[in-house]
Amino acid sequence: MAELRFPDGFLWGTATASYQVEGAVREDGRGESIWDRFSHTPGKTFEGQTGDVACDHYHRYPEDVEHMARMGMNAYRFSVAWPRIFPEGKGPVNQKGLDFYRRLVDALQGRHIQPCLTLYHWDLPQALQEKGGWDNRDTGRYFAEYAHTLYQALGDRVPLWITLNEPWVAAILGHAFGQHAPGFGDFPLAMRVVHHLLLAHGWAVEAFRHDGPRRAQIGITLNLSPVEPATGKEADGQAADLADRFTNRLFLDPIFRGAYPELPDLMRSALPQATPEEMERISTPVDFLGVNYYTRQVVEADPQGLYGVGMVPARGDLTEMGWEVYPQGLYDLLIRVHREYHPQAVYVTENGAAFADEIQDGEVDDPRRIAYVREHLSRAHAAIGAGVPLKGYFYWSLMDNFEWAFGYSKRFGLLYVVPGSLERVWKRSARWYAQVAQANAVPLG
Ligand code: IFM
User: Fold this and answer.
1) Residue 391 per-residue DSSP state
2) Candidates 21, 292, 401: which one to mutate for ligand 1, based on the most atoms within 8 Å of Cβ?
3) 400: Cβ below 6 Å to ligand 1?
4) For residues 14 and 369, is the Cβ–Cβ distance under 8 A?
5) How far is the centre of ligand 1, averaged over its atoms, from the C-alpha of 403 (Å)?
6) Whole-number pLDDT of residue 419
7) Does the CB atom of residue 17 touch ligand 1 within 6 A?
């Protein structure tokens, strides 16, 4: 059968994040996070759902690792809950929290699955929020200390480290649009948070270079999407360029070029005055870029929209999130970051789709997810052929989980999680993805 073969050593994995899967929020000394506080605030999440129990990965991780091993995965991307390690965000280490991640890493290594550890996937300790959260520059210092603690504890056994997951989402959805924790609607605040997250990233990379693990690699994961104008009109082209600066380049430029892109005055003036030393720290070279890709953005000039830009509603083949299925966007994006920013290596650290999966007679048939992954992998393969140093692909997500403000109403998993019992059931896509990983190739047709 015709197939697309991937380079030897390519990483095949799945991704999750602490608050979305772990549960056990009051166990073994874990402190409160901003997502505990937000999800317990009436009206913030779908039907008031929370991550209190989530998928109970905290207790069921051995079973989850077994599922990954049976699928033939050779990598797993997970995040550490900062408040498990430092319940107050700083101060004394909570050994029991560290022990959980030690056990998880042991289990993964026992099954020859490479751990890929994200330090921050949005669950800031609430105690630090009380001190200003990411509006407080010191939070970045505490982040670097937390990162350092993990380098010391796990550095010799975790080959891939990610400082931040999707800082754009944490900054903008959390501080300008109020859809994520901590739930503020203050645009200038969000721009300050952008800068402080970038500083936190830079300080954590610096700590890694100074006395972090020698044989491991560190990078950052950004949510990126090509931005296309709705028409060929000049005004729409300008809107697309502005939206690209505000979304993709807001993080790519400082990290890879040491400077913010040109921004409209209102955005630029809200950014703190950065010193050359700060920009140098932010652009401390990383070993890889993590790309989270789900869909493209189509925009038009719109005087009523934020900064004169309007989003054109997605059309065509849509997922349950209302996101257009657009595999070509992954190719375009990978080529663009390779040509314009030259990362040494790239990983697709998330790509996936939510569909309205149903379990019938113990089976979940999800052909649309298989088609989604097949098409995106075929574009990833083409990007490798065009010279992109793509080293791995992580499907989002291993299992259905807590999709932030949408609660459990959106199912992204390869494993169906049965409400109540939390039993894991392999969807047909899990079996298909297992074949891909085991063959290191995508079957065509
Ligand atoms: O579930 C999220 C994840 O936490 C970050 N990236 C996008 C996913 C789907 O929305």
Assistant:
1) E
2) 292
3) no
4) no
5) 7
6) 98
7) yes
